[in-house]
Structure formats: structure tokens, C-alpha cells
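Hey all, quick one. A colleague (J.T.) asked me to put the zinc ion job into the tracker so the inputs and the C-alpha cells live in one place instead of scattered across chat threads. No bug as far as I know, just bookkeeping. Sequence used:
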Amino acid sequence: MGWKLNEQLKLLIELQEIDTSILSIAERIEALPAKLEKFKSPFKEANLLLQKAKTQLESLGKNKKDKESEAEEFQEKVNKLKAKSKDVKTNKEYEAFLKEIEGFEKGKYKIEDQVLSIMENLETFTKNIQKEEAKVKKTEEEFRQQEKEIEEEKTKLHAEMETYKSKRKEFVAGIDAELYEQYMNLLKWAGGLAVVPARNEVCLGCNTNIPPQQYNDIKKSDSIFNCYYCKRILYCKEQ
Ligand SMILES: [Zn+2]
């Protein structure tokens, strides 16, 4: 093989550094949606509570209207009876009328009490809605702010990634094709780590001992050596 190994190894080491950076940037980009989601859920939750409170207020308002028209009906009955009572001839008949009127009035008062209690509830619910609206506003602001920051971070990371990618192209151009293929295959199945240092006769990629003779050869670094166990390309940090 005609390439100058020392130089090739140096290029591979630097290529690995670039690829490690690219992988780490890709991971950070991938983690961004989850980061945003953490701020989106309180906003969504607050919105849901607000909608619920609004629905409750609406049904309470409807309840109040129903009760009010019920009270009106009673009042109409009372009015009609009162009008009729003018034509009554006997005391007995009149007493019966009064009793009936009293019954309807009682019913009306009872309903009016209910309306009052509904109105108190309405006040509490309205205050509650104001609180929920403030919460929605606050959580939305936080979410929008975070969304903006994350968008900026994404743009920044993509730009960084592009820089590394063009740097990568330069390095790849100098690496022997066969060696590059070996590197790429290793990168794929060895979890993004194809070139690893060896220290104290141990491969730092898989923590397996390296035979002393091979370790000495790696130290000289005049050839490409692979860990016999994990097959990663080794270089020595102790020279
Ligand atoms: Zn190894």
C-alpha cells in the first residue's frame, strides 16, 4: 500500500474528531423538540383549564337564566291569580286563592334564592377565569420565548454542522479510499467511534488489553493497527 501511514493516521484521527463533533451536534439538534415540549405542556395545560373554566361559567350562566325564567313563570301565575281574586264572591273562595298565591310566591322566593347563590358562584368563577387567563398568558410567553431561543439554537447548530461538514470534505480528500471505506464501516457499527486511542496497553474503545508487541508497534505508529477485539483503528497517545 502506497500511502504514508503516519499522515494517514493523523488524518483519520482528525476525521474522527470531526465526526464525533458532527454526531454530537446531530444529537443536540434531535433533542431540541423535547426541550421545547417541556415548555409547551404547561401552556397547553393552562389553556385546557381555562377552556374548562369557561365552559363551567357558561353552563352556570345558562342555569341562572333558566332559574330566572322559572321565577318569572311563578310571578305570572301569581299575577293572574291576583287578577282573578278580584272577582271572588265568598270568603272561602278568597282564602283558597290566597293560599294558592302564597304557594306560588314561596316557590318564586326559593328560586330567587337559588339565583342569588348562582350569582355568587358566577363571581368566583369569573375571578377564577381571570387567574387562568393570566396563567395562560404567562406560560405562553415562556413557551414563545423558549421557541425563539430553540429556533436560534437550531440555526446555530446547523451552521456549525455545515462548517464541520466542509472541513470533513477536505480531510476525506486526503485519505486513501480503501482506508476511508474501512473507517466508514467501523464508524457505522462501532457506535460512531472508529479511531480510538490506546493507553497502557489497553484499547480505550473496548477496554481490551493489547498484546505488548502490538502495543509497541502502535507506539511507532508507522502502520494502521486495528484492535483485535473491537477492530477499531488504534493510535497511541503516549508518544
Ligand atoms: Zn478495542
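Adding what we noticed when we looked at it: The CA atoms of residues 49 and 132 lie 7 Å apart. The chain is about 80% helix and 5% strand.
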